[in-house]
Automatic annotation (TrEMBL):
The active site is at 121 (charge relay system), 151 (charge relay system), 224 (charge relay system). It is found in: Periplasm. The keyword Hydrolase applies. Substrate binds at residues 121, 151, 222-224. Residues 268-334, 365-469 form the PDZ domain. One of its GO terms (biological process) is proteolysis. The keyword Signal applies. Its main location: periplasm. This is Serine protease. InterPro entries: Chloro_Bact_Ser_Proteases, PDZ, PDZ_6, PDZ_sf, Pept_S1C_Do, Peptidase_S1_PA, Peptidase_S1C. It comes from the Bacteria.
Length: 479
């Protein structure tokens, strides 16, 4: 599963390592640290040479901090539902109301006057935040603000003369470049791990505002908020998430590009919050089977799977099934490119989109809105199905129209419910409970719609599918 964050939170899962605390050394008032030498850039990495990780750690390790948090937090809705699903005798006794928790994470110094960046989830619901410097001094930090959309928080501690990191340019990263992470996994301060860039511009579910950097550097609970360095010792990202089936490192880690973080942090310092541009679409990467179904030679572009009613995208005429091939004249190879462009924009910016729609190239201009304004992305309205559907046999699907109460619960106005999947549909990933909304761009309001499209004997079709509140395109080869 995709880890929502790396900070160890909740009283049941918090880790407390007493030797991390330098008790009696807290600084209640502003102090001036001994000024560290100015951090000069490290020599550029020469082709064929291994990166000098030792030099990076020695130079910039003092700029990395540990973060301890304490507070109270109510059980989430998901946790409450999970507890209710247990047999009655197995349910733990959970007192009502907020429960104390302790957590930890990492951060790094971006200004000599005590400005620190970390993840928003590290300090969420915290009542006290303690920053541990590399020399074991501790300071109570003030949270200047946080931004859930990008998972960025800005802290300040009352001390001057700190050594900040050097900031790099994530746009210069390429797959295969060496990177280094420093943080406090499981409370183990100043832990360094190395890896390479596995991908750039990753778009993750629920995180459309961030074009993540994917790496294979070992990142574990407690690394959240720590810096990701390039081979020259420049910070290019903030370690934020992992993909894991165990809760620990499994070789897939994600970092927020530092340019996104700095844009947000500047707004937080100035106003206490951050504003984000909003397009109002959900997109997915193209695959060759999807490209075939859309009549495209190459699987390039961002496939629009959902358009929010009333959004800037809807106002500009974007539709589910459009393939965004260019953004401001630049070719779009993957969906993450759209996230990256929106992340760099502010409300009111205009972007030019070149799209592929039903075999034709179309140009649109969108004026971006403000994130948080207007309706959330939802299923487009259309007529509901009205008869039993057995016509999905060529696709390997057993289908039936949604009942009125099912449409109301899912907030859908049309669609055919998948009661069973086998053959081509099962191989494509369709399963019981999915709802087919459209086939090759045509809304599905009855089985006849499927039959009309399949009568042309296409080699592959693109099904727009609703699944657990989200929409995605699934390519299927009819038999």
């Amino acid at each position: 599963m995709l880890g929502g964050g790396l900070a160890v939170v909740g009283s049941a899962g918090a880790i407390d390592l007493p030797w991390l605390h330098a008790k009696g050394q807290s600084a209640p008032a502003a102090q001036t640290a001994a000024a560290l030498p100015a951090a000069e850039p490290l020599p550029a990495l020469q082709p064929g040479n291994a990166p000098n990780y030792r030099a990076i750690v020695q130079r910039y390790g003092p700029s990395v901090v540990g973060i301890l948090v304490e507070g109270k937090r109510s059980a989430s809705d998901d946790e409450a539902e999970a507890l209710q699903a247990l047999p009655r005798g197995w349910r733990p006794a959970v007192p009502p109301g907020a429960q104390p928790f302790r957590g930890q994470g990492s951060g790094f110094i971006v200004a000599a006057d005590g400005l620190i960046l970390t993840n928003a989830h590290v300090v969420k619901d915290a009542q006290t935040v303690t920053v541990l410097l590399a020399d074991r001094r501790e300071y109570t930090a003030k949270v200047l603000g946080s931004d859930a959309a990008t998972d960025i928080a800005v802290l300040r501690i009352p001390v001057q003369g700190l050594q900040p990191v050097r900031l790099g340019d994530p746009a210069q990263l390429a797959v295969g470049d060496p990177v280094l992470a420093i943080g406090a996994p499981y409370g183990l301060a100043q832990t360094a791990t190395a890896g390479i860039v596995s991908a750039t511009g990753r778009s993750l579910p629920g995180d459309g505002a961030v074009p993540f950097i994917q790496t294979d550097a070992a990142v574990n609970p407690g690394n959240s908020g720590g810096p990701l360095f390039d081979a020259a010792g420049n910070v290019v990202g903030i370690n934020a998430q992992i993909y894991s089936r165990t809760g620990g490192y499994q070789g897939v880690s994600f970092a927020i590009p530092v340019d996104v973080a700095m844009r947000v942090s500047k707004q937080i310092v100035a106003t206490g919050s951050a504003q984000h541009a909003r397009l109002g679409v959900a997109v997915q990467d193209m695959t060759q089977p999807l490209a075939d179904s859309f009549g495209l030679a190459r699987p390039d572009g961002a496939l629009v799977s959902q358009v929010a009613p009333g959004s800037p995208a809807a106002a500009a005429g974007l539709q589910a099934g459009d393939v965004i091939q260019r953004i401001d004249g630049q070719p779009t190879v993957q969906a993450g490119a759209l996230s990256a462009r929106i992340a760099q924009a502010v409300p009111g910016d205009r972007i030019a989109l070149g799209i592929w729609r039903q075999g034709k190239a179309v140009d649109l201009t969108v004026t971006l809105g403000r994130a948080g304004d207007g309706a959330q992305a939802g299923a487009p309205a259309n007529g509901a199905g009205d008869e039993a559907a057995a016509g999905g046999a060529r696709l390997g699907l057993a289908l039936r129209p949604l009942q009125p109460e099912e449409r109301a619960q899912a907030k859908l106005d049309r669609g055919l419910l998948v009661q069973g999947a086998q053959g081509a549909a099962a191989r494509a990933g369709l399963s019981r409970g999915d709802v087919v909304l459209a086939i090759n761009g045509q809304p599905v309001d009855s089985v006849e719609t499927l039959q009309r499209v399949l009568a042309a004997k296409p080699k592959r079709v693109a099904l727009l599918v609703w699944r657990a509140g989200e929409q995605l395109f699934v390519p299927v080869a009819p038999v």
